[in-house]
Design a protein that fits this description.
heterotrimer; A mainly alpha (about 325); B mainly alpha (about 375); C alpha/beta (about 500); B: about 375 residues; globular; disordered C terminus; C: about 500 residues; alpha/beta; six-stranded mixed β-sheet; about 35% helix
Chain lengths: ~325, ~375, ~500
């Protein structure tokens, strides 16, 4: 940051700031959006509202953990939403309001996520289809499976203790939902994977320049498949937590997380073409998405206007972050 | 005679839409067998098939143009609903002739296309995300125009849409045919090759004096008109208005194109879109008949429509995996091209190096 | 007359052009010379409309003009054949040549008859043997280059820019090109010719402009310059013939054979090649560009498959199916195609140096940040890499330092066999010498090195044995006394009538 010269104009400086530290920029945007929310409706400045922002942000952050890894590795996972929904249905079905079934559930959900991820990975890598299309087709299949297996209306609820472990307030503080505890496991895990393990370093190399990574001795097929497997597992875990948050599940309940996680990750500064990005950024991006949606609610807009706003703001954010290079230099 | 047949088969085999074509034929045979050929090839059944699915096929054709130009638009689906609500509401509220409303509907699709073009080409945003964001915008606009499903289409219009010309050819077929003819003509103009250049390599196209932004604008405009026509087909089909329908057409048309053998940017042809979307349509139809056959054959067998959807999506996924055949075909084209080159060089040069030929026999 | 005056261009922090000028008269072939990275290609790209200069003006017949894009460039009568080609591989030869210049009929459709005529005339003029309906990606690199030139000539330009087009061409193709250039000269067309091959410059060029680090140093008639003069203006130093580096020399008697390649064929580029590398030996592969050298090296690395033959590595028949296995077995690969195959531009210097270490070992193992930094810092210090900070992106380094980075990445791993594919391409002379020193040192310590290069001096000064490739075959194997520039160049051009070389080759085989 110190290299910023004083001769730069404000616009250039802010552009530089944004390029250098998109995560900080995203936090800043979230802060501004939140400030606007409070100005419009001062009532929204209360502990439980903040608690719900924390809850939803963590949920989206965990869902987009895998998406971050996949995007950095040069792929894209559109199955996040479908996997989340399926895991949520698994949760309510397996738990069926009874305690003591957490570990079988965890095993089943992660196995499901890993299988879907493996399928995604193998089909993109070995068959060479665009990741967008493959992950979409596979997520269609699992979505249909949700309907087939549940006859369209999933039964059961998450177990009371599991619900409590996600939604109760730490130290009785309204703004500290206990999902934070899960976050404390997942977030460091993702940081370890991306920043401190050999795997993460290989993912960055792969995403930045696959040809060079391959010639350099990185087993790119294996790494790419692994990114999808992780994505599936993180999405499945997020789906479990989501089920606890929502209590019950229905088919396609979390489908919009497919796009939302993608956009959160992009807002966090991860490049669409791979090789660049941080998980901090994705968390910040998730915060922006949640605060933005809160703001639109606070503005009391009708649903259609809200949609239009949401779309336009997404476009503006994309313009800030992810413009491709000009043909002419 | 046999040789020419063989030749044209080789040409077909090497074409980019071969996998899509094969899948399409398989689905066609399957559908005819399950439904019973007599029933399937009846005028009525073909008419229903076309009338119901012309919109989807058209959207896939529009999408294929964008894919060739190296971009895409996943908001195509919701644009159909936009055409639908604009057409219905302008006719209902302003009381203008329905034909004029139809034109306004097409205009709305073109405008939406231009908006997506601005995001994707002018602002150079990733097309997938930008057009997804546009889905939100258009969805909002749709509901602003028409808050709840309502309205109707003049009877003579939807009756006309559902009829057959000469008692044989469905009217909806002409919509598809017309659009295909437009694409065919466009291919023969300079635009027809510029679009491939821009999709294949924008920098080199730029160096050749072609403006990628302008070519993509043309592609988006053409796509807008096609989606407009598709929207009208949909409107005449359902003969009512619904602001939130057909949204999944955007993404499904993308899958259909890829399944038909199109690549992202500069590779493939509109035929891929036709076969790909045809496969989608016929598979859904076949699965329906398959299950009704089961119900008839096995007493007491009953199954929800969820199973039908599941089975057809699994088949579509398997179909996508089939595109590996297309990739193989493309590799073969490359390889044979190189072999051909080598033979020429060997021919010119000393016989010493003609061992290149033998090498080719090894896989 | 075409003129560029006082042109500046910066790419972020890198100065590509600094007050550069160029003027070309009708009917002359103007050589634009300079070492790699001196700004020649940037000049060409400005005229072609691909690069927007920061300052300076372009004049045509004395009138200032603006070139904002490829269309403007074409309209002003400028046509360009690019070094990295501007053909679209997924399109046919016909569509490529006519791209942006299609003959139309009254209805606005492409006129098939007229276009056939144009294509056939052009292919005949350039003696290109291909079907107009072939996809460009199915053509040989040399044919593609000829098409690139043909496409530019088809525009009937007033100014023709040829950016290093002969690099991939065969001898007879170059002769065809020169005869076309002479015809064009007669027609009064101005031409700018960029090349690294000095003999060509003296053969076809009338005047020259020499560039050094973004500045145009001197302009004058070709006859005024000797080869030494040109080198002087390009580098700023007189070539010093007395000073010779100590050649790394030793006999391979009794040494263990690390790599033994037997009768290798890789379709379509390599036919029946055999070569051998001993422990601690530097083996060179010479030849013009595109004679199968990259394919051979990649086949050894396991990156591409081969049809016939055998590769014996470390005493055992190699069954390496992928570079990752090769790296695990102690190979290292340094590519001269820096941007495409070696550098991770968006990643930091640290990560780029670590890339070798990252590729080897357990996937989920912890990589301690401190040890990594120390490892990278050692490499940076030892190999004199000029960096801002270990945390800056690799793209912030100069080309030479980027290449040293790649070399350091692998040397630090101490591979048993190091493969280098034209490692000093586009590297400044200073960095190049440093890389040479590093390699010699490593060989003395017992590393086996297989290096392919298009620069004869590099091979002659570095290697114990040189295999010269021509059209996918070994045209000569030079050792000891035979390692002379003359023999090397003759073998590179495929002139193997030199019986002595051939006989030594046969004796060895």
């Amino acid at each position: 940051m110190s290299s910023t010269k004083s001769t730069l104009t404000l616009g250039q400086r802010s552009k530089l700031f944004m390029q250098k530290s998109p995560a900080r920029m995203a936090f800043l945007i979230a802060l501004v959006l939140y400030a606007i929310t409070v100005m419009i409706s001062p009532g929204s400045l209360n502990a439980s509202a903040i608690g719900s922002i924390v809850m939803l942000t963590l949920l989206l952050s965990i869902a987009s953990a895998g998406q971050t890894i996949v995007l950095i590795g040069g792929g894209m996972d559109f199955g996040v939403g479908a996997v989340m929904s399926s895991a949520a249905i698994l949760t309510t079905t397996i738990m069926n309001s009874q305690d003591g079934r957490f570990f079988p559930l965890l095993f089943a959900a992660l196995a499901m996520g890993a299988t879907v991820g493996l399928l995604n990975g193998i089909c993109t890598v070995k068959i060479g289809l665009p990741p967008l299309i493959v992950t979409m087709a596979i997520s269609n299949v699992i979505t249909r499976m949700q309907y087939v297996l549940t006859q369209g209306s999933p039964m059961g609820y998450a177990s009371p203790s599991f619900i409590k472990s996600v939604t109760s307030k730490l130290f009785g503080l309204q703004f500290l939902p206990s999902i934070i505890l899960y976050g404390l496991i997942i977030i460091p895990l993702v940081f370890y994977l991306l920043n401190h393990s050999r795997f993460g370093k290989q993912v960055y190399l792969l995403g930045n320049n696959p040809v060079a990574a391959r010639l350099n001795g990185v087993n790119i097929n294996r790494i790419q498949i692994l990114t999808y497997v992780f994505s599936g597992m993180f999405a499945a875990f997020a789906g479990m937590l989501g089920a606890a948050y929502m209590n019950a599940a229905r088919c396609q309940i979390f489908d919009e997380y497919a796009y939302n996680s993608l956009i959160a990750v992009i807002i966090g500064g991860t490049s669409f073409s791979g090789g660049v990005g941080t998980y901090t950024g994705s968390i910040a991006g998730s915060l922006v998405m949640v605060v933005l949606s809160n703001l639109l609610t606070a503005m009391g807009l009708a649903q259609p206007t809200r949609n239009v706003f949401m779309g336009l703001i997404m476009i503006v954010l994309l313009i800030f972050y992810n413009r491709e290079k000009k043909v002419r230099q | 005679m046999i040789d020419t047949l063989k030749n044209s088969f080789t040409r077909l085999r090497r074409s980019s839409f071969f996998a899509g074509f094969v899948l399409f034929i398989i689905a066609l045979v399957l559908n005819a067998a399950l439904q019973g050929p007599a029933s399937f090839f009846s005028v009525k059944s073909i008419n229903t098939l076309f009338a119901k699915n012309a919109a989807f096929i058209l959207v896939a054709i529009g999408q294929s143009l964008l894919l060739i130009a190296g971009t895409m638009d996943v908001s195509c689906g919701i644009q159909l609903a936009l055409v639908n609500v604009v057409t219905i509401m302008t006719h209902q509220v302003w009381g203008i002739p329905f034909a004029l409303s139809c034109l306004l509907g097409i205009g709305a699709a073109v405008l939406a296309s231009i908006a997506v073009w601005v995001c994707c080409s002018v602002f150079r945003l990733p097309a997938l995300l930008a057009s997804y964001a546009m889905t939100y915008v258009i969805r909002g606009v749709n509901v602003m125009i028409m808050s709840v499903p309502q309205g109707k289409v003049p009877k003579e219009w939807y009756m006309a849409y559902d009829s057959q010309l000469f008692g044989l050819i469905p009217v909806s077929f002409f919509a598809v045919l017309g659009v295909l003819l437009i694409c065919r003509f466009a291919r023969k103009t300079p635009f027809g090759s510029h679009i491939y250049a821009v999709g294949g390599n924008p920098r080199n196209a730029f160096a050749a004096g072609i403006s990628p932004v302008k070519v993509q604008l043309k592609a988006f405009l053409l796509k807008g008109v096609i989606v407009g026509i598709a929207g009208l087909c949909l409107t005449l089909m359902i003969a009512a208005g619904n602001p939130l329908q057909a949204e999944d057409y955007g993404i499904r048309s993308l899958s259909a194109c890829i399944l038909g053998g199109l690549g992202f940017g500069g590779w493939g042809s509109v035929a891929s879109a036709v076969f790909g979307s045809g496969f989608f349509v016929l598979i859904q139809n076949s699965v329906y008949y398959f299950f009704s056959l089961l119900v008839r054959l096995i007493p007491g067998f009953s199954v929800s429509s969820y199973w039908q959807n599941f089975v057809s999506d699994v088949i579509i996924f398997l179909g996508l995996l089939m595109t590996i055949v297309t990739a193989k075909g493309r590799q073969e084209v490359l390889r044979e091209g190189i072999v051909r080159q080598f033979k020429r060089i060997d021919y010119r040069k000393s016989p010493k190096e003609s061992e290149g030929k033998e090498v080719t026999t090894h896989e | 007359m075409f003129e560029l005056r006082g042109v500046d261009k910066r790419f972020d922090a890198v100065v590509a052009l600094n007050n550069a000028s160029l003027s070309v008269e009708p009917g002359e072939v103007h050589a634009l010379l300079g070492s790699n990275g001196s700004g020649k290609s940037t000049m060409i790209k400005i005229l072609a409309g691909l690069v927007n200069p920061n300052a300076g003006e372009i004049l045509i017949d004395g009138n200032p003009v603006e070139i904002r894009n490829g269309y403007d460039s074409r309209k002003l009568g400028i046509a360009t054949a690019f070094q990295d080609l501007s053909l679209i591989p997924t399109m046919s030869v016909r569509d490529n040549i006519l791209l942006g210049n299609e003959p139309r009929n009254a209805l606005g459709f492409v006129d098939q008859k007229a276009s056939d005529e144009i294509i056939n005339r052009l292919l005949e003029r350039f003696q290109i043997d291909c079907d107009p309906d072939d996809y460009v990606q199915t053509l040989m690199p040399s044919t593609q280059t000829m098409l690139e030139v043909a496409k530019a000539v088809a525009l009937k330009p007033r100014l023709l820019l040829l950016d290093e087009v002969t690099a991939a061409l065969h001898y007879d193709e170059i002769q065809v090109l020169f005869s076309v250039m002479r015809e064009l000269k007669e027609e009064g067309i101005a031409m700018v010719y960029v090349t690294h091959r000095m003999n060509e410059v003296f053969e076809v060029c009338d005047r020259t402009t020499i560039m050094r680090s973004g500045e145009s140093v001197i302009t004058g008639p070709m006859d005024d310059f000797s080869l030494d003069d040109i080198v002087y203006y390009m580098t700023g130093q007189r070539p010093d013939k007395s000073k010779k580096d100590v050649v790394h020399m030793h006999s391979d008697e009794g040494r263990e054979i690390v790599l033994d390649v037997k009768n290798l064929s890789i379709f379509p580029k390599v036919h029946d090649i055999s070569l051998r590398a001993h422990k601690g030996e530097i083996v060179g592969i010479g030849g013009l560009q595109g004679q199968g050298q990259p394919e051979l090296i990649r086949a050894i690395l396991g990156a591409i498959r081969y049809e016939e033959g055998e590769i014996i590595y470390d005493g055992e028949p190699s069954t390496l199916k992928s570079p990752s296995k090769a790296v695990k077995n102690g190979m290292g690969f340094i590519s001269g195609e820096r941007n495409r195959e070696a550098i991770f531009p968006a990643r930091t210097v640290l990560e780029n140096i670590l890339a070798g270490k990252v590729a080897k070992g357990k996937t989920f193992a912890y990589m301690p940040a401190k040890a990594n930094r120390a490892f990278a810092q050692r490499a940076v210090d030892k190999y004199n890499i000029v960096i801002g900070s270990l945390n800056h992106p690799a793209s912030s380094l100069s080309g030479g330092n980027q290449q040293k980075l790649v070399v350091a990445r692998w040397i630090a791993m101490q591979p048993k066999l190091l493969l280098l594919d034209d490692p000093t391409r586009g590297v400044d002379i200073h960095s190049r010498l440093e890389i040479h020193e590093i390699l010699k040192e490593c060989a003395n310590e017992g590393m086996t090195i297989l290096i392919s290069s298009s620069e004869s001096e590099e091979l002659l000064s570095l290697c114990d044995v040189i295999y010269v490739f021509y059209e996918g075959c070994v045209s000569a194997q030079l050792t000891g006394e035979n390692k002379t520039p003359e023999k090397l160049v003759a073998a590179m051009m495929g002139m193997s009538e030199d019986q002595e070389i051939v006989s030594t080759m046969e004796a060895k085989a």
